C-alpha cells in the first residue's frame, strides 16, 4: 500500500510539475518584447512575442553547436599521432548478460592496428552463460577474469587494472565495433602527445525507427557537449576510452554508480587531467530496438546524472582543484536544469504553432534536422551508417521527450529508485 501511494505521489509530482512548466512557457511565450529606436527625426518601435525570441535563440544555439560537431566528425582522422607498437595495452570489456553481442567487440579489437595488445573480458561471477561464451573466445590475445567486486562495471574495470601489469588501458562495451585505428591513435595521444585520457565517439546503428531515434538523441547530446567544451571540460567515459594507470589512480578509478563514466569524466576535469576528445574515431554500438528499451535506457542514464550530482554534493567523489570542482558542479546542474527547461522552451514554440507563425516554429525543427543529417552524412561517408534520410525526419522528435524524461528521473531518484538499473536486451545482429 505504501509503495503504491509513493508511486502515485511521484506520478502526480512529475505530471503536475510538467504541466506547470508548460503553462509557464505558454504564458511567457505570449508576452510582448519592445525595442524602441529614437533618431533625430524618427521614433521606431518594434514589438514581437517572447516566443519569437525563443525560436531564434534556440535555432542559433542548435546551428552553432551542431556545426562545430559536424566539423569535428567530418575531419579526417589524421590529426592524432598513431603508433602501431609500444607499451603493453590492456583492453577491458566488462560484461553482464552480454554473451550474444560479445563477438562484436572482441572480433573488432582483434583487428586493431596496435600490436602489443591484450584483451580481457571481465565477467560477473554468477553470469555463467556469458562466462562460457567469453571462455570460448579465449586464446593468446584474449583472456577472461571474474569481477572481484561483483555488481558493477566499475568493479569489473578495477579488477582488471589491479591484476594487470600494464600501464595503459582501454575500456569498451561488449556490443562495440571498434575502429581498427582507434587504439593506435589512443596510444599515440597518451605516449607521444602526452595526454592522460583519449576518448572516441560511439553511435547507435540507425537501422530502424527506434534505432534512428537513439542515433539522433546521441547527435543532440554530442552537439550540446561542444558548448560545454569551451570551458575546457571533456567527456571521457567507460567505453571507447584509453587512459593511463596514473590517470586512473589519480582520480580514484571508476565509482560504483549508475553512470560511473559520467563521474569519471567530472573527476578527470576536477583533477585537471589532459583529455583528448576525438569524435572522428567512431565505434558502432547496438541501439535499443523497442520504445520501452529506449525509454528505460535513457531514464537510467538521466537517473545516473542525478546520482552523480548528489554524490558530488555529499562529498563522495574526489575533489580535485577547487575552482574546477565548482565549474563541474555548475555543469551538472545546468545539464539537468537545461533538460527540464526544454518543457518551457517547447511550450513557447507551441505558441507559434497556435498563432500560425510558420517560419518561426519551423526554424528550430529545420535546424535540428539539418544538424542530424549533417552528422549522419559524415558517418555515412565514413561507411559507418547507410542513409541520412530517416535521420533528418526523426531528429525533431528527440527534444520533446528530453524534459519529461529528466523530470521523471529526478523525482524517481528522490522518491522511489531502489538502486536497480534497466538492462537493454541486445540481439547481436
UniProtKB/TrEMBL annotation:
It comes from the Archaea. GO terms for molecular function: glycosyltransferase activity. The chain crosses the membrane at residues 12-30, 46-70, 332-353, 359-378, 390-411. Keywords: Glycosyltransferase, Membrane, Transferase, Transmembrane, Transmembrane helix. InterPro entries: Glyco_trans_2-like (IPR001173), Nucleotide-diphossugar_trans (IPR029044). Residues 91-249 form the Glycosyltransferase 2-like domain. Gene3D superfamilies: Spore Coat Polysaccharide Biosynthesis Protein SpsA, Chain A (3.90.550.10). PANTHER family: POLY-BETA-1,6-N-ACETYL-D-GLUCOSAMINE SYNTHASE. This is Glycosyltransferase family 2 protein. It comes from Halonotius terrestris. The lineage of its organism: Archaea, Methanobacteriati, Methanobacteriota, Stenosarchaea group, Halobacteria.
Amino acid at each position: 500500500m505504501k509503495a503504491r501511494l509513493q508511486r502515485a505521489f511521484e506520478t502526480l509530482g512529475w505530471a503536475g510539475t510538467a504541466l506547470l512548466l508548460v503553462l509557464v512557457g505558454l504564458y511567457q511565450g505570449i508576452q510582448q518584447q519592445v525595442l524602441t529606436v529614437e533618431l533625430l527625426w524618427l521614433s521606431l518601435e518594434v514589438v514581437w512575442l517572447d516566443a519569437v525570441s525563443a525560436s531564434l535563440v534556440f535555432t542559433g544555439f542548435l546551428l552553432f553547436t551542431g556545426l562545430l560537431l559536424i566539423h569535428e566528425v567530418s575531419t579526417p582522422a589524421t590529426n592524432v599521432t598513431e603508433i602501431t607498437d609500444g607499451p603493453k595495452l590492456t583492453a577491458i570489456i566488462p560484461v553482464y548478460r552480454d554473451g550474444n553481442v560479445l563477438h562484436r567487440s572482441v572480433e573488432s579489437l582483434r583487428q586493431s592496428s596496435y600490436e602489443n595488445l591484450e584483451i580481457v573480458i571481465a565477467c560477473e561471477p554468477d553470469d555463467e552463460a556469458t562466462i562460457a561464451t567469453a571462455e570460448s573466445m579465449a586464446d593468446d590475445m584474449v583472456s577472461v577474469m571474474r569481477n572481484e567486486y561483483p555488481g558493477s562495471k566499475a568493479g569489473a574495470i578495477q579488477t582488471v587494472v589491479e591484476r594487470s601489469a600494464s600501464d595503459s588501458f582501454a575500456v569498451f562495451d561488449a556490443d562495440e565495433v571498434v575502429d581498427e585505428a582507434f587504439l593506435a591513435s589512443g596510444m599515440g595521444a597518451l605516449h607521444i602527445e602526452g595526454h592522460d585520457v583519449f576518448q572516441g565517439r560511439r553511435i547507435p546503428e540507425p537501422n530502424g525507427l527506434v534505432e534512428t531515434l537513439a542515433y539522433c538523441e546521441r547527435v543532440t547530446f554530442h552537439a550540446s557537449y561542444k558548448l560545454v567544451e569551451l570551458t575546457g571540460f571533456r567527456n571521457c567515459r567507460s567505453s571507447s576510452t584509453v587512459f593511463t594507470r596514473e590517470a586512473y589512480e589519480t582520480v580514484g578509478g571508476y565509482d560504483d554508480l549508475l553512470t560511473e563514466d559520467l563521474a569519471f569524466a567530472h573527476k578527470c576535469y576536477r583533477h585537471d587531467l589532459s583529455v583528448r576528445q576525438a569524435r572522428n574515431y567512431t565505434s558502432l554500438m547496438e541501439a535499443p530496438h523497442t520504445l520501452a528499451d529506449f525509454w528505460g535506457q535513457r531514464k537510467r542514464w538521466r537517473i545516473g546524472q542525478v546520482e552523480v550530482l548528489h554524490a558530488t554534493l555529499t562529498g563522495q567523489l574526489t575533489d580535485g582543484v577547487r575552482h574546477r570542482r565548482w565549474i563541474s558542479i555548475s555543469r551538472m546542474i545546468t545539464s539537468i536544469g537545461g533538460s527540464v527547461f526544454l518543457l518551457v522552451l517547447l511550450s513557447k514554440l507551441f505558441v507559434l504553432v497556435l498563432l500560425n507563425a510558420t517560419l518561426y516554429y519551423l526554424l528550430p525543427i529545420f535546424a535540428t534536422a539539418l544538424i542530424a543529417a549533417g552528422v549522419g552524412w559524415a558517418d555515412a561517408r565514413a561507411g559507418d551508417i547507410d542513409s541520412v534520410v530517416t535521420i533528418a525526419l526523426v531528429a525533431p522528435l528527440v527534444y520533446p521527450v528530453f524534459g519529461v524524461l529528466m523530470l521523471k528521473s529526478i523525482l524517481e531518484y528522490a522518491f522511489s529508485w531502489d538502486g536497480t538499473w534497466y538492462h537493454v536486451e541486445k540481439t547481436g545482429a
